[in-house]
Design a protein that fits this description.
This protein is mostly helical. The chain is 81% helix and 0% strand.
Length: 226
């Protein structure tokens, strides 16, 4: 059985299709996290505003992201927008929009928490030695935030990579969808295909995410020691 499973995995272009699916998974995640970091920093700083309107809007945004499952958002964007407004949007672009929407909220909340965790004496001490506000932000605040944010951002990346498996419901041929297609094609000749294909998909996810998880733990330990 093991020999047959290995043969099936490397039969035709099955192995290449799985790797291509993994690349789609990584591509969606990397593009989404890049936009999420950029927009998340901006929204996170806005959350510190004392303007009541901005405070209400950003909190509503956070609550929407926390309450609605990513799958519902994917369906809403991919099927809802295309049907209602006659917008031609691909599954991959829908995924990037939804994961950016989700990731921006996550990053913004992390930025806000990091800013709130910095004690006032950092600001006061920096101003006392003659630094301007922009210099305080550049040389004191941002390095402190970066050290706190890096392991949390890596955790968000791993979560995003795993969540891309939901895009199978909107037709994106990522690694899980590629595995499903291979299983369907071999359901008669190799009924046990699901075990071996999904097992290999598990290994691909593990190889992709576990090193980042280890890096995140290491960075957290370094940050706590300092």
């Amino acid at each position: 059985m093991l020999h047959s499973a290995i043969s099936m995995l490397f039969e035709g272009n099955n192995f290449i299709r799985l790797l291509q699916g993994l690349w789609v998974t990584i591509r969606i995640s990397m593009v989404s996290i890049t936009f999420s970091i950029f927009f998340g920093i901006f929204v996170g700083i806005l959350m510190q505003s004392k303007n009541i309107f901005i405070h209400i809007v950003t909190n509503i945004y956070l609550e929407i992201v926390r309450i609605l499952p990513q799958l519902v958002l994917l369906m809403l964007v991919y099927f809802g927008l295309s049907k209602t407004f006659q917008i031609q949007i691909s599954g991959e672009m829908s995924a990037i929009l939804v994961f950016t929407f989700w990731g921006t909220a996550e990053m913004a909340d992390l930025i806000r928490s990091s800013l709130q965790s910095i004690s006032k004496h950092h600001y006061e001490s920096a101003l006392a030695i003659g630094l301007h506000k922009k210099q305080v932000l550049r040389y004191i605040i941002l390095p402190l935030i970066f050290r706190q944010m890096l392991p949390l951002t890596i955790n968000l990346v791993t979560r995003m990579i795993k969540t891309t498996s939901l895009t199978v419901f909107i037709g994106v041929v990522e690694v899980t969808k590629a595995g499903q297609q291979i299983i369907s094609a071999n359901r008669y000749t190799f009924p046990e295909a699901a075990l071996w294909i999904y097992g290999f998909v598990f290994i691909l996810y593990f190889i992709t995410c576990y090193p980042m998880s280890l890096l995140s733990r290491k960075l957290e330990k370094i940050g706590s020691i300092r």
